[in-house]
Structures are given as structure tokens and as C-alpha cells.
């Protein structure tokens, strides 16, 4: 069986003898495998990440964008703002669009469609035609 690359040192300063020994082990393992290192030959013991070969989104840790089941790195509200024209009877306010954020709104009363931005607490818009 091929030599496994051990997990990297944790809680030890870079440049220490522990890191130097680990880097030398990695170098020797890579150099001995002429074609490179197979994913299966990497030892994940002590790591907190699952096998990336499956590329399952929910296996990526600390990267969930919103509530469970939202498979993008945005909240549901942010996703709606960047993929939809939000329709309301009035123009948006700073309550609806956070500071330094933007959205496209259609005022159903006037029929206008505008790109709105909250510029540091001041609402600004551009009419889209």
C-alpha cells in the first residue's frame, strides 16, 4: 500500500520542526509517486472536512448561505433581489434595501421599473426603460 500523507500539524507555529517534518514527509510522498498523489492516498484523520470526491454541497462546512435547504451562498431574500424584479405598490425604503445594497423594483402603482440603491442610508434610483 502507498504511503499516506498525514494530516497537517494543528496548533503548531509554521516553521517549527513539526511543520518541517510534515513538509518533508509530503515532499517524499509526492516525489516517490512519479505520477502524483492519488486522492485516496491522503489521510484525512483529524481533519474536519468530508471527502470532496463526492462534491456534495451540504458536505462543505460553514458555507451554508441561509436557512437549511437554501443551496446557494445567499439568503433567500438576497437571492430574490438579484434574480427577480420585486413588485410593490410603493417605492422601496431603507428598511427594505439595506445600506450599500441594491435591488430592482417595479412600482405597481406607477408602473415604473427602477434599479434602487441604498447609498449609505440615502435611497437612489435609475429608471429602467
Domain module count: 2
Largest sheet: 4 strands, mixed
The parts where pLDDT drops under 50 for at least 5 residues are: none
Let me know the number of strands. 4
Put simply, the count of helices is 2
Proportion of helical residues: 10-25%
Structure description:
The protein has about 130 residues and is of the alpha+beta class. The chain has 2 domains: about 1-60, no CATH class; about 75-129, no CATH class. Helices cover about 20% and strands about 20% of the residues. It has helices at about 15-30, 75-85, and strands spanning about 85-90, 100-105, 115-120, 120-129. A 4-stranded mixed beta sheet has the order 1-2-3-4. A hairpin with a 2-residue loop joins strand 3 and strand 4. The N and C termini lie far apart (about 65 Å). The mean pLDDT is about 80.
Write the layout of secondary structure elements.
Layout: H1 17-32, H2 76-83, E1 86-88, E2 102-107, E3 113-119, E4 122-128
Parallel strand pairs: 1-2
Antiparallel strand pairs: 2-3, 3-4
Can you describe this structure in just a few lines?
The chain has 129 residues and is α+β, with helices and mostly antiparallel strands. The chain has helices at 17-32, 76-83; strands at 86-88, 102-107, 113-119, 122-128.
Keywords:
alpha+beta; about 130 residues; elongated; four-stranded mixed β-sheet
Amino acid at each position: 500500500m502507498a504511503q499516506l500523507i498525514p494530516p497537517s500539524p494543528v496548533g503548531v507555529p509554521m516553521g517549527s520542526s513539526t511543520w518541517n517534518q510534515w513538509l518533508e514527509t509530503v515532499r517524499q510522498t509526492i516525489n516517490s509517486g512519479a505520477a502524483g498523489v492519488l486522492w485516496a492516498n491522503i489521510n484525512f484523520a483529524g481533519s474536519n472536512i468530508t471527502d470532496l470526491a463526492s462534491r456534495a454541497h451540504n458536505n462543505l462546512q460553514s458555507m451554508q448561505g441561509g436557512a437549511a435547504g437554501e443551496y446557494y451562498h445567499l439568503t433567500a431574500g438576497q437571492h430574490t433581489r438579484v434574480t427577480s424584479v420585486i413588485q410593490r405598490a410603493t417605492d422601496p425604503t431603507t428598511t427594505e434595501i439595506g445600506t450599500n445594497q441594491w435591488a430592482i423594483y417595479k412600482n405597481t402603482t406607477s408602473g415604473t421599473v427602477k434599479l434602487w440603491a441604498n447609498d449609505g442610508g440615502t435611497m437612489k434610483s435609475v429608471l429602467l426603460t
